[in-house]
Amino acid sequence: MSAGKTVVALEGVRKAYGETVAMDGVDLAIDEGELLTLLGPSGCGKTTTLNVIAGFVVPDAGHVRIDGAEVTDRPAWQRGLGVVFQSYALFPHMSVADNVAFGLRERGVAGRRRGIACARPWRSFACRASPTGAPRNSPAASSSAWPWRARS
Ligand SMILES: Nc1ncnc2c1ncn2[C@@H]1O[C@H](COP(=O)(O)OP(=O)(O)OP(=O)(O)O)[C@@H](O)[C@H]1O
Ligand SMILES: [Mg+2]
After folding, report:
1. pTM of the model
2. How far apart are CA 112 and CA 99, in angstroms?
3. Which ligand 1 atom minimizes the distance to the CA of 45?
């Protein structure tokens, strides 16, 4: 679903780790309001792509633009993006929703606005996890519950 102006763009991005080419000539445009999923076999470069967008990995070639501005060499903390990592890097003592909203809280976004910002993608994903539940790495979550078990 595309809904507006391009907010994240990759142009001709290449990233190699030594002999391993993780990205080569990657072009991507993500529009405002659009939800995008990267799907592919292990090692095809999904995480590298996300890290290049977030600013954790600097590409060898190409451009990264956010809201039209060139950010290729801008550090992660100056990009105004939020990243929710995989289960092992979540805060186990916080709910799923609080993990998602953590970056916004650190940036001083008020509670109500944080809730609205997190609820929208949640509805779009039709996620069957409860946002008030504990993340999977929490001691409160059982290994049989996928992906999260709601707190009772
Ligand atoms: N820091 C690194 N140092 C060396 N090689 C790396 C590094 N990070 C990723 N790679 C290699 O780059 C390629 C792409 O890795 P990447 O993690 O982006 O793939 P992925 O699509 O996210 O895989 P997965 O589905 O397993 O998470 C792989 O061959 C991987 O081994
Ligand atoms: Mg990955």
Report:
1. 0.81
2. 15
3. 18
